[in-house]
Write a structure and sequence with these properties.
221 residues, alpha+beta, nine-stranded antiparallel sheet, 16% helix
Length: 221
């Protein structure tokens, strides 16, 4: 598959209009420092702001549900429904029943990014379905307030994480920490800051179909 340029993204799950608005500012009212850290270079800072939202306070269109959904996009959702809602992807690749689509905020490759990995169960289900959703926008959170920009140590409070892979970008090494049972994984910078979140099917290793997101990934399991 082709190399996908790694920038820290805005979630287009709720639609391109929402995404374009979020690229310039945070509609949730959170301190703009978070967006600044994420947009510039998380690996250059030793600190990050970990906003905690009361459980149930995150709007559905901004909610990350491990193993199930990010915003309006759901695991195992029909690809046609996703593409109709989100519009034409800015970049993508496909081969042998698998495909990867990328959306950028404002169609700008330097903006926030959403990637969705689709797959067909060839011979059994010819419908292309969502298998993994990768986002890098701090705007979207779990019910407990975990988001891009959260420190690694805060993730262990809610998830049973194992480091399953690494990759490099611009000379920096990132770790991939997965909670297989829950169906969520996190990309972590060398400063122990979350720079990306991946939702996948529960009880399925993220590394099993994760390779398309980064061409230089190194599996540890």
């Amino acid at each position: 598959m082709s190399t996908y340029k790694y920038y820290l993204p805005i979630l287009l799950i709720a639609g391109t209009t929402t995404s374009c608005r979020q690229q310039g500012s945070s509609s949730s009212g959170r301190d703009s420092t978070v967006d600044t850290i994420v947009k510039t270079d998380l690996v250059k800072t030793d600190t990050a702001i970990a906003t905690t939202a009361p459980e149930g306070a995150v709007a559905g269109e901004h909610l990350i549900v491990p193993g199930a959904s990010v915003g309006q996009t759901k695991i195992n959702e029909n690809a046609d429904a996703v593409n109709k809602r989100m519009g034409k992807a800015d970049d993508g690749d496909s081969a042998m029943g698998k495909s990867l689509s990328t959306w950028y905020a404002g169609h700008d490759t330097s903006g926030y990014q959403t990637q969705i990995f689709f797959s067909r169960n060839m011979g059994n289900d010819e419908t292309s379905r969502v298998k993994q959703i990768r986002i890098t926008s701090p705007e979207f959170q779990t019910a407990h307030g975990i988001h891009v920009g959260s420190p690694l140590k805060s993730l262990f409070a809610g998830f049973r994480l194992s480091k399953v892979a690494t990759y490099t970008y611009n000379g920096a090494t990132y770790g991939i920490y997965d909670d297989k049972k829950a169906g969520i994984a996190f990309e972590i910078s060398d400063k122990d800051i979350c720079t990306g979140i991946i939702v996948h099917e529960p009880e399925t290793k993220v590394a099993g179909t994760y390779a398309p997101f980064h061409t230089n990934i190194k599996m540890l399991e």
